[in-house]
């Protein structure tokens, strides 16, 4: 692997870390915001049980949907990246074996 390829791989890994970090941060911030809005909504209602159940159900659904969507997209992204790297490594191995010098066939036996 040349220095340019190694630098590109390192840069891709660093970019992937940044994307994962900020994606997770966005999910956490949105989940905290949804929870805060639900708490304020329940607090302001002051005792209407049926509406509180509706608010809490909607908040739980929103939080679980956001979290599941993030984790699903991240898992698919990681799987696609590993498949692409595997195919790239296989292509590199095939290219290097195709350009390797051919060995001479064994000599025939004369017995």
Helix content, binned percent? over 70%
Structural class: mainly alpha
How far is it from the N-terminal to the C-terminal residue, by CA?
Answer: 48 Å
Uncertain stretches: none
**Proportion of beta-strand residues:** under 5%
Overall 3D shape: elongated
How many E strands? 0
Largest sheet: none
Question: If you average the pLDDT, what whole number results?
Answer: 83
Q: Please give the domain count.
A: 1
SSE sequence, one letter per element: HH
DSSP helix count? 2
**How big is the Rg?**
28 Å
Question: Descriptors for this entry?
Answer:
111 residues, mainly alpha, 2 helices, elongated, membrane, transmembrane, transmembrane helix
Model description:
The structure is a single chain. The chain has 111 residues and is an all-alpha fold. It has one domain (3-94). It contains 2 helices and no strands. The chain has helices spanning 3-45, 49-98. Helix 1 (3-45) packs antiparallel against helix 2. The longest helix has 50 residues, at 49-98. The radius of gyration is 28 Å and the shape is elongated. The model has no long low-confidence stretch (mean pLDDT 83). Keywords: Membrane, Transmembrane, Transmembrane helix. The chain crosses the membrane at residues 22-45, 51-73.
